[in-house]
Amino acid sequence: MGKIIIVGGGIIGLSSAYYLSQDGHSVTVVDKGDFLDNCSYGNAGYVCPSHFVPLASPGNLVQGIRWMARSDSPFFIRPQLNSSFLSWAYRFARSSNARHVKDSEAPLRDIALFSKDLYQHLSNLPGFDFRFQSKGLLEFFKTQETLHHEKETVARALDLGIQARLLEPEEVRLMEPDLSIDILGALFFEGDAHLYPNLLMKNLLALLPQQGVTLIPNTEVSDFKTQGHRIKELDTSSGKMQGDQIVLAAGSWSGRLAAKIGIKMLMVGGRGYSLTLKDTPAILHHPIILTESRVALTPLDDRIIRIGGTMEIAPLNSPPRPGRMQAILRGVKQYFPDWEIPDPQPQNIWTGFRPCSADGLPYIGRIKEWDNLTIATGHAMIGLSLGAGTGKLVSQIINESPASIDLRPFDPQRFGA
Ligand SMILES: Cc1cc2nc3c(=O)[nH]c(=O)nc-3n(C[C@H](O)[C@H](O)[C@H](O)COP(=O)(O)OP(=O)(O)OC[C@H]3O[C@@H](n4cnc5c(N)ncnc54)[C@H](O)[C@@H]3O)c2cc1C
Fold first, then answer.
1. Which residues have any ligand 1 atom within 6 Å of their CB?
2. Domain ranges of the chain
3. pLDDT digits over 276-322, tens only?
């Protein structure tokens, strides 16, 4: 079997490496960083078949426009005057319609359920503990408008075979008895799970070399040399690299790398922020989304809670906005009025760029022009959730074996070559 080079060591690249090496391939993962921090670390850890509505939806578009003038809003698009951003924005706006949402529901459900099963399986491997827990997901809400919307979500979820029900505040207080709560109600997705992303990544980084995978840190891929319909060589900051098959899993940077070999893959980075409370006296029993504030809370481990949020579409080299985390914490206070969260030290605020496709569906598949290239990116808000599933699908693509789910909705060239 030939040599496979994976560009990018986030959850998508490492999961791909895991399944490909399980199948006996010789695999190298190359990353411009040290593998110890990327978007796959500081996220909320939701493994969430409940997230069957793509980012490109009428609700998000309307809210995004409404919030556009407010740079402290949870969903903020910083307009950029370059053609790749403008093409993305145009496609995002065009995709944000009811038809697209409907068409995306089943594909997103299928890949999420597939991925969740794989995480469940991984969590049973000896010594591979990443605190995988199937406790469901609560979505707290405070307004009648959201209640109305959540009723529709329940109906859509049940149609898709995803368990969902509305809870009264009293029922929620029985499930979350340790903090006082100020809500109108909650939506409960019983079938969701969560995990501790940092432990998952740490476990994978320890396991992969034992499976023969080579990890090359601090090496940036800058270009590709091609011959006929194949990528022959990668130009990297440490010299040239050759592989028989190439997997592009470079997260938010994938679009600009793909453009080097003429692939038009509309992508932007959507920065998010998180704060991990360690040794916290607060106790949460479930992952919780604070719907109107767009904040995600996760009990990652004993006395460890992560608070995250914000989708800030901004250039990949733009500086983070320090006030953003305070806005997130103010959002928490609206639902948990008595929860005193100490002001975060700037060095404890984590940020990462979600790789956002133009229609909210990932790009997974082959490229017509290049026989030995597989794309796996663009997962936006659900890349951790879909990580294991995407890795397995990449292995099936490269093995030329039947894919476990229909890959057509994820065609990387669905917006044209
Ligand atoms: C606050 C927040 C909360 C989130 N919560 C959740 C959640 O609960 N559930 C969920 O499913 N998802 C969540 N996400 C989204 C999820 O984290 C991402 O979708 C996922 O981590 C993307 O993984 P990736 O492997 O594609 O990218 P990354 O993790 O960013 O990895 C890409 C890697 O490619 C490398 N790279 C880039 N360019 C090059 C190059 N030229 N050469 C070599 N290497 C390169 C980078 O250094 C990086 O290590 C959240 C995100 C944020 C920000």
1. 7-13, 30-33, 38-40, 43-46, 220-221, 249-251, 253, 257, 272, 274, 296, 308, 352, 354-355, 377, 379-385
2. 3-410
3. 999 999 999 999 999 999 999 999 999 999 999 999 999 999 999 87
